[in-house]
Write a structure and sequence with these properties.
With 413 residues, this protein is of the alpha/beta class. It folds into two domains: 192 residues, Rossmann fold (3-Layer(aba) Sandwich); 173 residues, Rossmann fold (3-Layer(aba) Sandwich). It contains 15 helices and 17 strands. An eight-stranded mixed β-sheet has the order 4-3-2-1-5-6-7-8, with helices on both faces. A six-stranded parallel β-sheet has the order 11-10-9-12-13-14, sandwiched between helices. A three-stranded antiparallel β-sheet has the order 15-16-17. The chain starts with 7 loop residues before the first strand and ends with a strand.
Length: 413
């Protein structure tokens, strides 16, 4: 898409590469794409351990119960001064923590339009971390936060419906893509499989993602254990299940010491591509996803998927074509058994998974996102917006009258 004009964009986020999670990878792609299109992009985020000091980096504190997640802290005045160095046309707030709230306040003081994005069902995860009873409060907060922005971008229709159900008013779909060269069956590595004790006809089951309570991994391990007892005896010793990733559940999962279960840790870059392509089946037990980035990466790598019929996952997987969607643990066991024992069906689903992923082109997705930003800016220009007067340090209300703008009264900030 040829840009009509250069946009000045600011991204506010509490997670960013090299942190390993779907949100960080998506936002890294956001930055690289808009910069490659010639736009001016600035990132305001917590400083990471290896970062040199920078004006745009803020203080970050890890969550006690989930140290891989950091909250950013900065005053609205600090963020206001950051934005004023090069006043953005639009601010995109990607996380709803204290940094996001401060950015909202700073953006409002400057009259800069704000888009937010919704990535994680954190209100539904509270019970997994011993904070039961606060789900309703968290949902009210989510609705309040996103209703302060001009549009909330969610990764799929089901995520939009879920946001609308808790009271978020203006939602749009910002889908996700996948790099079909980075995640491709061609990266299959016989040497990696040999190190795991697997030959060509043996089966490597794979999970990639956070090792965290909300991912329902204990249920997947229990299912794997049951399936090992169901499949023919000659197959039992030729099955492996690898959980690639890290998180607060890593130690407890390792403590189970299950036979043929592997925890290789976090993987990045080509190593991650190798693990995906060297597997035979993607086993994804999460029951609460906003999108399921790992599912799409697995499909691009030529893997059929076994998952639960839940938000996010059921928008990625077509039941009976490129995988199975289970409504219960018993159905999950059955699906896993079928795809472990029926080679032809597994191969057919693998081809369908890859074909689907090839249609998830990042370029088209960012064309739509850029168009959405431009429409938002144009609508505000036509209907009347608050713009910041850099000279006087005040908000000037610009009202549109018959297509013409006129300055109204100034409000000190």
């Amino acid at each position: 898409m040829a840009s009509k004009s250069r946009l000045r964009l600011a991204l506010v986020t509490e997670t960013f590469p090299p942190e390993v999670n779907g949100v960080a990878r998506t936002l890294g792609r956001w930055v690289s794409t808009f910069r490659s299109r010639g736009h001016d992009v600035r990132i305001i985020r917590p400083r990471q351990s290896n970062d040199p000091p920078a004006f745009e980096y803020v203080h970050g504190v890890p969550l006690p119960f989930y140290p891989q997640v950091r909250l950013g802290f900065a005053s609205p005045m600090r963020l206001r001064s950051i934005f004023l160095r090069s006043l953005p046309d639009l601010i995109h707030i990607a996380t709803e923590g204290p940094l996001g709230v401060a950015a909202l306040m700073a953006a409002n003081s400057l009259g800069v339009p704000v888009a937010s994005s919704f990535h994680t069902n954190f209100d539904q995860y509270l019970t997994h971390y011993g904070i039961a009873g606060f789900e309703a409060v968290a949902a009210v907060y989510l609705a309040w936060f996103h209703n302060q922005t001009h549009v909330t971008l969610a990764p799929g229709e089901s995520a939009c419906r879920r946001l609308q159900s808790i009271g978020v008013r203006e939602t749009k779909v910002w889908s996700r893509g996948v790099d079909g060269d980075v995640f491709h069956p061609a990266h299959r590595d016989p040497e990696l499989r040999q190190k795991l004790g697997l030959g060509d006809d043996d089966l490597l089951l794979l999970y990639v993602g956070r090792l965290a309570p909300e991912k329902n991994l204990v249920a997947a391990l229990d299912s794997f254990e049951r399936v090992q007892r169901i499949v023919p005896e000659d197959l039992r010793e030729r099955l492996r299940y690898a959980l690639v990733g890290d998180g607060p559940s890593a130690a407890s999962l390792a403590g189970r010491r299950m036979k043929h279960v592997i925890l290789p840790g976090e993987m990045h870059g080509h190593e991650l591509s190798r693990w995906y392509a060297s597997a035979d089946l993607f086993v994804f037990p999460s029951r609460s996803e906003t999108f399921g980035n790992a599912v799409l990466e697995a499909q691009a790598s030529g893997l059929p998927v076994v998952g639960y019929d839940c938000q996010g996952v059921n928008e990625r997987v077509l039941h009976g074509t490129d995988g199975f969607l289970a409504k219960s643990d018993a159905e999950f066991d059955t699906a896993l058994t079928i795809l472990c024992t029926e080679h032809e069906r597994r191969a057919s689903y693998a081809r369908a998974a890859r074909a689907k992923a090839e249609c998830q082109d990042w370029s088209t997705i960012f064309d739509h996102l850029e168009s959405l930003y431009r429409r938002l800016l144009q609508e505000r220009k036509e209907t009347g917006v608050s713009a910041f007067n850099l000279t006087s340090g005040s908000l000037i209300n610009i009202q549109s009258t018959n297509g013409k703008s006129s300055a109204g009264s100034s409000v000190p900030v």
